[in-house]
Write a structure and sequence with these properties.
The protein folds into three domains: about 10-175, CheA-289, Domain 4 (OB fold (Dihydrolipoamide Acetyltransferase, E2P)); about 180-330, CheA-289, Domain 4 (OB fold (Dihydrolipoamide Acetyltransferase, E2P)), CATH 2.40.50.180; about 350-485, CheA-289, Domain 4 (OB fold (Dihydrolipoamide Acetyltransferase, E2P), Beta Barrel), CATH 2.40.50.180. It is about 15% helix and about 45% strand. The protein has eleven helices and 35 strands.
């Protein structure tokens, strides 16, 4: 019962967004509003509609209004290419297509990560947004769209009212409607396109850090922990005997429900979600062996055979014998191995909260960090050293706040939206330190930490630094703060 309640709390605190791009901007819409994504197809223009209305198209016998996402947000239109997609969304029972430059991924975000949209944001009216998700220390911004405001009833009704055009009606009447359809998630391995039935797809994620498992099958890359569940990861290139390829920004792991367990399948790129009639999926060719034919459900021939999809039978990809080989006698044994491995890894690793002061990057041990807050008004206290900003009231606790720029004799800087107060606990004494911005949580091997050089940038006293971490072959230098000395009065 407790686990069920925890799972429900986790679900309520999360949102799943289908993310896509318009130009350089990344947007997201709630997955519950997305029916499917389709390739851009022929669109019938509709007279006397707003300029952002692309027209209508025939989607399996139903008229689908299409709007151009770029035009809707006042962006310049662009030529369509092979990555252009139509995002088919359903808002209060009204189905509409939105033309986007490309679909990115399905992303899980915590509700707490969704910040209110600023009054002024590039290319987009803030009224159209539920908020902004900041990832990777603010380097990646995803604007969560409020489809209800973008696709108002008046807009959708106006478009649909124009569909009485004779050509559109003839197009719909002449369409053959096949109610027996499959919805597929398509993906690439090299130049070949494959597909899973969407009913077996749980989610799609970026490639995480994968822990290798000794003596596993050649195509088992290892296991990952996703929300406290261990999942085996199948390298689909190895599975089909293809050459290895480097992981790119487009690489994804498709998590599949196999019935009695779940597994992740690493692919080069996820393409789209499409609906196809069942009768276009032909049985596997006779060239496949009996075991292979069980894994391959069939081949879908689209566009008069110009496009072939290898439809995989997800539940037959990992046999019980392979699962037993991977997991061993029980999942508990593998979890125990993973825990020991992670304990060893943690002993050999440092986890630090990185932050910036000007162009320099510093870090504090994550075990010393209690929380990170936006800069709030502090009460100035007479008689304190110049590098103390004052005191803040944190839920009834009075916390002294130290300004690290003054501590390090750096040039003063006005506080802004990026300014943060990091609450640290050293020797059971809580203090706040003011920094320009917080970057990220870093994890790296301890052997990358070197002794503090006698001379540091910006004349930072070496006694405040316990070591320097060199990342990216020395291109990125992070100074590890010695909090005991930095917080010491005097």
């Amino acid at each position: 019962m407790t686990e069920a309640l925890n799972n429900m709390t986790e679900i309520l605190e999360e949102r799943q967004l289908v993310t896509f791009y318009l130009g350089q901007e990344e947007f997201g819409v709630d997955i519950m509003n997305v029916r499917e994504t389709i390739r851009f197809s022929e669109v019938t223009k509709v007279p006397q509609t707003p300029d952002y209305v692309e027209g209508i198209c025939n989607l399996r016998g139903s008229i689908l209004p299409i709007i151009d996402g770029r035009s809707r947000f006042g962006m310049e239109r662009r030529l369509r290419d092979e990555r252009t997609r139509i995002l088919v969304v359903d808002v209060n029972g009204r189905v509409t297509g939105i033309v986007v430059d490309r679909v990115s991924e399905v992303l899980r975000v915590n509700v707490s990560d969704l910040e209110p949209a600023p009054a002024v944001i590039r290319n987009v009216d803030a009224d159209y947004l539920d908020g902004v998700v900041k990832l990777n220390g603010g380097k990646r911004l995803i604007m969560a769209l409020n489809l209800g405001k973008i696709l108002t009833v008046d807009i959708v009704d106006t478009i649909q009212a124009q569909t009485v055009a004779a050509t559109a009606l003839e197009q719909v009447k002449s369409s053959e409607v096949d109610l027996e359809e499959d919805q597929l998630v398509t993906f690439l391995l090299g130049d070949e396109e494959y597909a899973f039935d969407i009913m077996h797809v749980k989610e799609i994620i970026r490639v995480p850090e994968i822990t290798a498992v000794p003596n596993a099958s050649y195509y088992i890359e290892g296991v990952v922990s996703i929300r406290s569940h261990l999942l085996p990861i199948v390298n689909m290139r190895s599975f089909f005997g293809l050459e290895e390829a480097v992981i790119t920004d487009q690489s994804r792991v498709i998590i599949i429900d196999l019935g009695n367990m779940s597994a992740g399948f690493k692919v080069d790129r996820v393409m789209e979600v499409i609906r196809v009639p069942k009768n276009v999926i032909e049985p596997p060719p006779v060239v496949f062996s009996s075991s292979e034919s069980e894994q391959i459900r069939g081949v879908a021939k689209l566009n008069q055979g110009a496009r072939l999809l290898m439809c995989l039978n997800a539940q037959n990809l990992l046999s019980a014998a392979i699962v037993k080989e991977l997991v061993g006698e029980s999942v508990e044994i593998l979890e125990e191995k993973m825990e020991k491995q992670m304990e060893k890894q943690l002993m050999e690793e440092e986890q630090l909260v990185a932050f910036r002061l000007g162009k320099e990057e510093f870090a504090i041990k994550i075990t010393d960090v209690q929380e990170i807050n936006r800069y709030t008004d502090v009460v100035r206290m007479p008689g304190t050293p110049a590098y103390f900003d004052g005191l803040v009231n944190l839920r009834g606790n009075i916390i002294p706040v130290l300004n690290l720029r003054r501590r390090f004799n750096m040039e003063e800087r006005a506080n802004d939206d990026s300014t943060r107060i990091i609450i640290v606990d050293v020797g059971n004494q809580k203090n706040g330190v003011v920094v320009d911005s917080v970057s990220e949580v870093l994890r790296f091997e301890r052997n990358l930490v070197e002794e503090t050089p006698k001379i540091l940038a910006n004349d930072v006293d070496a006694k405040y630094i316990k070591g320097v971490c060199k990342l990216n072959n020395g291109k990125r230098m992070v100074m590890i703060l010695d909090l005991v000395h930095a917080l010491k009065v005097g």
